[in-house]
Amino acid sequence: MGLDDDSRDYHRQDPPGKIEIATTKPTNTQRDLSLAYSPGVAAPCRDIADDEDAAYEYTSKGNLVGVVSNGTAVLGLGDIGAQASKPVMEGKGVLFKRFADIDVFDVELDITDVDDFVAATKAMEPTFGGINLEDIKAPECFEIEQQLREQMDIPVFHDDQHGTAIISGAALLNAADIVEKDLDDLEIVFSGAGASALATARFYVSLGAKKENITMCDSSGIITESRVEAGDVNKYKAEFAQPVEEGDLADAMAGADVFAGLSVGGIVSQEMVRSMANDPIIFAMANPDPEITYEDAKSARDDTVIMATGRSDYPNQVNNVLGFPFIFRGALDVRATEINEAMKRAAAEALAELARQDVPDAVVKAYGDHPLQFGPDYLIPKPLDPRVLFEVAPAVAQAAVTSGAARKRLDLNEYREQLEARLGKSREMMRVVLNKAKSNPKRVALAEGTNEKMIRAAYQMQEEGIAHPILIGNTKRILRKAEELGLDFDPTIANPRDGEWDHYADRLYELRQRKGITESEASELVRRDSNYFASVMVEMGDADAMLTGLTHHYPGGLRPPLQVIGTAEDANYAAGVYMMTFKNRVVFCADTTVNLDPDEEILAEITKHTAELARRFNVEPRAALLSYSNFGSVRNEGTAKPRDAANLLQDDPEVDFPVDGEMQADTALVEDILTGTYDFSDLDEPANVLVFPNLEA
């Protein structure tokens, strides 16, 4: 099947469409229902009647956006009407939810009259925290947005106008910097004079471009003052009319620094590109086919050609999803009355700045492991980069506060943590780790220091103040790779094969001389095995921790630190722990990698240390000793060990967390089973520490 048929099947799968309404409060009992509806609901209603702002406290208004359209200008489809546009509007809702956790009602109005459309949308103000206008044809869209912004006390944003403007504006900031040109000197040519082109031209002026340096072309050619006088252009296009002779797009592009295409595909030739100024910036943003292809633009000339399109299969995709979810997130969270020019500029500047930062491995992997490094082919972040939410939304929120549009102030550090929590427990847990690390940065030895991922990790640790990294490996290789990656930092490097490390060899020999290692073998291990080098570095107090395992097999990574550093004074055994994060819970699993067949005493020790670890992540432990048996349902030597371990822990006065066993994993994790079938258990909530009886389990 082709894409069209696949999409039809995708949309018609039961339930049809792409969005649904889900409850956020318990609805399991009669009391729940009496709180959710009559009679209990009357209390918040009375409060809101007394103070309308209470709606943000009692209802979903503060996280609800209306995507409103009449379907008169659907991208690639044109005027298909309100009903046919509904799949697009539902899709917009999916993007709001996926990228910024914003709920959406899509509203398709079968109204083409401007005043009637404005009245209908204005009447919905009590429902929504913001309005996203979508796919409304020009010039009506200008008038509709203007009237609604004047009449409504919540943010109103026409994404077709401002989305492209903001994203391409971020790209323009970085492109101009790369080619070393000032914005106020740029000669900019626009192909297209619709809603998006006009809004983009205005936004470029807001960023610092000069209006008199912008030449705009529509299908009839350059928009000139003489055409305005002849009544050939509407009042919106007339804003960018220039006192020049009439001509076509080719005439306009001669000598231009920037081409901004928001028109139709294939109308720009290589010759037109060659006529532009040195190191031209070309944003060919027509969809699905750009005004000139990436390959043709790049090969048209020998100097730097910075190219962006609206397509995902080429570098520098100008994708509106980088903007509207995060702009609305910031605006909603400070209860902004509008999305003003300062907030839009803040979004563009935050995107531009984020593109200059090192890109996390997860993002690189999501885009096929292609290098993502600031430069001509990486001007703006990728949509799947989760950092966009944490950078753009706070920037927009702060701009709203500074410009006077906000009705609520936020602590930006706390706000970033709240945003991460919206993306699930994994982000929340990482924030806990990062905050603790930043409060007391440790020296971390990176044993595989010549590996690209380790070098990039060291850069991020140092850049964010998380730790003081020490890269172990060949100095020249590390510095060369860092330069290739475009990482501007001065790393601390320890080269085992070049330097005075005899004291490390002496210490290893001292520790292992009665374990079969000779003096020469100790020297060889320190010089040639970076895991032994890093282990001795930690043992001697020259580093606080080591990181390894990226390229080594697990035993090869674990054996050196166990032999050299050993376990803590209060521990007899090491154990491996996995932390599993889900949307609303975190589960620690142990021992998963070290002890083959532990007895009950080892299981008890593993449980205590894993509980301590959970608390270091701000998780209050509830431990379950796992088995295929539930509380004695099967009795043999295998099921006795976790049961006896649980008894040891329950009898230990130093154990101050709930623990029980033996039990099956679903008993430990499913509340209905735990508190229903086994209500006698010492766990009154599902476990978050699972201790396995052996490695096979």
From TrEMBL:
Q: Which Pfam families match?
A: malic (PF00390), Malic_M (PF03949), PTA_PTB (PF01515)
Q: Which cofactor does it need?
A: Mg(2+); Mn(2+)
CDD domains according to UniProt: NAD_bind_2_malic_enz
Query: Which parts of this chain are annotated as the region Disordered?
Result: 1-22
Q: Does the keyword Cell wall biogenesis/degradation apply?
A: no
Q: Where is the Malic enzyme N-terminal domain?
A: 16-149
Biased composition range(s): Basic and acidic residues: 8-17
- The name under which this protein is listed is NAD-binding malic protein
Tell me the organism: Haloferax profundi
